[in-house]
Design brief:
The complex is a heterodimer of chains A (about 140) and B (about 140).
Chain A (H helix, E strand, L loop, with lengths): L8 H5 L12 E4 L1 H11 L4 H4 L1 H6 L9 H16 L6 E8 L7 E9 L5 E8 L4 E10 L4
Antiparallel strand pairs in A: 1-3, 2-5, 3-4, 4-5
Chain B lengths: L1 E8 L16 E10 L2 H7 L14 H14 L8 E9 L8 E14 L2 E12 L5 E11 L2
Antiparallel strand pairs in B: 1-2, 2-4, 3-6, 4-5, 5-6
Chain lengths: ~140, ~140
């Protein structure tokens, strides 16, 4: 797949201006969401479903799958770029902190100067970033 | 989520995948899933539905990737932690198409006294073989 084009704006934007910021998305991560995601992903790691197991691992309580917050970020990306069609992209993130059950999370992202790159994140209700990373738009391959 | 879900992995893999057992540079196995419309409903039970969405959400590629990883690298020790992920998304899977995910152990190493494993998941259209998404998952391995 082609990567590394110097300026992909025209190719990526479909003639539409790229947004300066990502559209924010919010989610209250209740137990129902965690259980639904476990069913959806077939990921029943005890950290996500068993309070005692989570506490034995040093957590205060159950933690959400990292992918729940990551997929919220994908939702934010989709809402931000839907006018541009479907750009090809690279999302590179680190999970900085756990999301505990019943916490609220919110996505954010800002364009990095005049580039097609974005700094992206997901924060909890205290403003702590639980995910941080970069989004790069890739040149479209045929 | 899937109508069909076929997992091809080492049939001798009945024991938990320990850090010692994982071998860098190897294909661990593959998973083929047929993506049905029900995924949109399941997705909407977690995330706020997006008005006018006529195709699968962007995050489905990520979801299918994680499901393939969970299906293929199984059983896993309890307590693993997902530390980082890079995803190159080229194309979304189409509703009702089957997708195949090849799951590789790319590298394993110790960092700050923690066992780390990098997996790569290549997600392809099962029929055409066209690469849809390539992800690298960094997992802190419990044991």
């Amino acid at each position: 797949m082609p990567v590394g084009a110097k300026n992909m704006l025209g190719n990526m934007s479909n003639g539409k201006e790229l947004p300066k910021n990502l559209a924010p998305c919010r989610l209250n991560v209740g137990r129902d969401k965690i259980n639904a995601f476990a069913d959806l992903s077939n990921d029943y790691n005890p950290l996500h479903i068993d309070i005692e197991a989570a506490q034995r691992s040093g957590m205060n309580t159950i933690i959400a799958h990292g992918s729940i917050a990551l997929n919220l970020l994908w939702e934010s990306i989709e809402r931000s770029f839907k006018r541009q069609g479907h750009p090809q992209m690279q999302l590179d993130v680190r999970f900085r902190a756990p999301v505990y059950v019943d916490e609220s999370i919110e996505t954010g992202g800002s364009r990095n100067g005049a580039t097609d790159d974005y700094n992206v994140w997901v924060s909890n209700q205290d403003g702590e970033r639980v995910i941080e990373g970069t989004l790069k738009l890739l040149p479209r391959s045929e | 989520m899937s109508v069909d879900n076929v997992v091809t992995a080492d049939p001798n893999t009945t024991r938990t995948w320990t850090f010692e057992k994982l071998e860098a540079g190897t294909l661990i196995g593959s998973s083929t899933q047929r993506i049905g419309k029900e995924i949109t409903a399941a997705w909407a039970s977690i995330y706020e539905p997006l008005d006018g969405r006529e195709r699968l959400p962007y995050g489905v590629a990520q979801l299918v990737t994680m499901k393939a990883y969970a299906d293929v690298v199984a059983p896993r020790p309890p307590g693993n932690i997902h530390a980082a992920q890079r995803c190159d998304l080229y194309e979304l899977p189409a509703i009702s198409n089957a997708v195949t995910a090849d799951v590789y152990c790319v590298e394993k190493y110790v960092r700050r006294n923690r066992n780390m494993v990098d997996f790569r998941v290549d997600l392809k259209d099962a029929e055409s073989g066209h690469l849809l998404c390539q992800s690298v998952l960094k997992i802190c391995w419990a044991t």
